[in-house]
Amino acid sequence: MQIFFRTVVVAAFLLLTGCDTGPQASPTVLEGKTMGTFWRVSLVDVNAQQAKALEQKIQAQLDSDDQLLSTWKNDSALMRFNHATSTAPWPVSEAMADIVTESLRVGEKTGGAMDITVGPLVNLWGFGPDKQPEKTPDQAQIDAAKARTGLAHLAVINRAGGQFLQKDLPTLFVDLSTVGEGYAADHLARLMEQQGISRYLVSVGGALVSRGLNASGKPWRVAIQKPTDRENAVQAVVDINGHGISTSGSYRNYFELDGKRISHVIDPRSGRPIQHKLVSVTVIAPTALEADAWDTGLMVLGSEKAKEVAQREGLAVYMITKEGEGFSTWMSPQFSAFLVNEKN
After folding, report:
1. Which is nearest to 244 in space by CA: 203, 198, 213, 280?
2. Which CATH superfamily is 77-177 part of?
């Protein structure tokens, strides 16, 4: 499963430790790879033996999540559904049903800008399992791929006997890459709670969840990176305690084709990579899954329409837009409540 590079870094114990007064304590940090990206878990009050056992449980859980959601593994649960040409209800896990339900909800709220059936277009433009195109896809190719997409062709069915997905297009291709990181981060948070751990910060790619206080007794803090190639250039700092956060950015995962920069962010309505000036969207929500779904849809919409949706839905959103040689920022009132004064 390919998860596109995001633009959030964990900064509570890296960039911001100098902002706290008094002696500094270090958390226990576990790291690994999953879903084409990296995971990281920072813990407090965990000994070495507990950490080693937990690391194995984390990796096993994430491997299971990847086997559920991957579009890069033909035997994943999602790809078995994609390969099936049947339009009858297809049995899926409760987790899969929940992920698709949330994705459909946000897709409707964004007017189809967030569309998990966009897989044929993602593949056409070279950001899926298919190789990058040698030339820009023509309109006929785009139209053919678009004909295989559309949220209206996918439904979640809940019955007493279980949950099902149903498609009315035999060739419909569902791609959950845009929400996979968020789901996995939430799943890691649940694992921490099950293990009796109440002070943690977990991240999968650009989706994060935190609870409790860090090793210094301060709130876990997250830094949103500036849209530059400098890894530690901080744009803003937030305290997300008890929430999920996710960022979508258009400026790092791209390639050059026919002399043009091709962004990985595909507008499912036009069938083409986005062209507007919005370069980064960060969303804070009750869950990382919800934040991960919203940041994609808002990224596709562009600055002005994204603002309208954020205000209408009462979302905590932070946006960075290219303006001439520099950048401008905008945040919703809900987001400002999470903002940290770095002098504190």
Report:
1. 203
2. ApbE-like superfamily (1.10.3980.10)
